[in-house]
Design brief:
The structure is a single chain. With 261 residues, the protein is α/β, with parallel strands linked by helices. It contains 10 helices and 12 strands. The strands form 3 sheets. The protein has a 5-stranded parallel β-sheet, with helices on both faces. Strands 8-9-12-10-11 form a 5-stranded mixed β-sheet, with helices on both faces. β10 and β11 form a beta hairpin. The protein binds S-adenosylmethionine (SAM). The site of S-adenosylmethionine has 24 residues, from α5 and β12. S-adenosylmethionine (SAM) binds next to α5 and β12.
């Protein structure tokens, strides 16, 4: 149970990667008693609709070059609403603590003495892996998995190439569409085989999900040819081969989840 009182407070809530049914029960409960919901652009509209009927819905999305509100303004808005005694839900795509600035947002709340809680969500890596049929670990070929951001500054100089090129590991890159060619080239340059399987999962868990498969050498060209756009997640490693047997989402014979829906 939450320890938040009836005074103003903020719940930082993970909305999951897209499929509205991946929202947690706890997130649903918090949304149904919200006075205000501040939501991002990757949050499914169906989820925003789950908020309490009278709740104020405020879009604060940050797309690549189009920010509805800056980070400081979002922080200030949460503080202001909570000080008015409101129960605020800050609804973010995936999990709030995974490349989502959730830590920064609650730091700002803590600094102002605002009560808060964090409700985890299904992060894009978990959603994409499940819905693409690519287990992130597998006893035969991947004993570890590393998550990194592909949002490159300084031409990728900040990426830890050594950590990303360890053997028997799956690499998952968030925000890697723009830097795809440089990331794949960098991984090859730092020792990974050009023929290592790699996949881009675009709009994972959404009805329009697409999975583009290739190798480190071929994926950039394939992705360009297919016109892949964010949000997309890059998964690199031997586990990608398993998809040939394990893909189920969108595959008629195996679409159990779709049938149940
Ligand atoms: C700013 S990060 C936020 C990640 C989020 N907090 C999470 O836990 O998934 C945005 C990136 O997450 C990935 N992402 C989020 N939702 C996705 C989806 N439905 N399909 C594929 N990638 C997704 C993409 O790489 C996108 O560029």
């Amino acid at each position: 149970m939450s320890n938040l009182t009836s005074a103003g407070c903020v719940s930082l809530v993970g909305a999951g990667p897209g499929d509205p049914e991946l929202l947690t029960l706890r997130a649903l409960r918090v949304m149904q008693r919200a006075d205000a919901v501040l939501y991002d652009h990757l949050v499914a509209p169906a989820l925003v609709d789950l908020a309490r009927r009278g709740a104020e819905r405020i879009y604060v999305g940050k797309e690549r070059d189009r920010h509805a509100l800056g980070q400081h303004e979002i922080n200030a808005l949460m503080v202001r609403l909570a000080r008015q005694g409101k129960r605020v839900v800050r609804l973010k795509g995936g999990d709030p603590f995974m490349f989502g600035r959730g830590g920064e947002e609650i730091e700002a709340l803590a600094a102002q003495g605002i009560a808060f809680e964090v409700v985890p969500g299904v992060t894009a890596a978990a959603g994409a892996a499940a819905y693409a049929g690519i287990p992130l670990t597998h006893r035969d070929c991947a004993q570890s998995c590393v998550f990194a951001t592909g949002h490159l500054k300084d031409g990728g100089a900040q990426l830890d190439w050594q950590a990303l090129t360890r053997p028997n590991q799956t690499v998952v890159i968030y925000m890697g569409v723009g830097g795809l060619a440089r990331i794949c080239a960098g991984l090859i340059e730092h020792g990974l085989a050009p023929e290592l399987p790699a996949a881009l999962v675009e709009k994972a868990t959404w009805p329009g999900q697409r999975v583009i498969e290739g190798t480190l050498a071929s994926l950039p060209e394939k992705a360009a040819a297919e016109g892949v756009r964010p949000p997309a997640l890059l998964i690199i490693g031997e586990v990608v081969r398993l998809r040939a047997r394990l893909a189920w989402f969108g595959a008629p014979a195996r679409a159990l989840a779709a049938e149940a829906a």
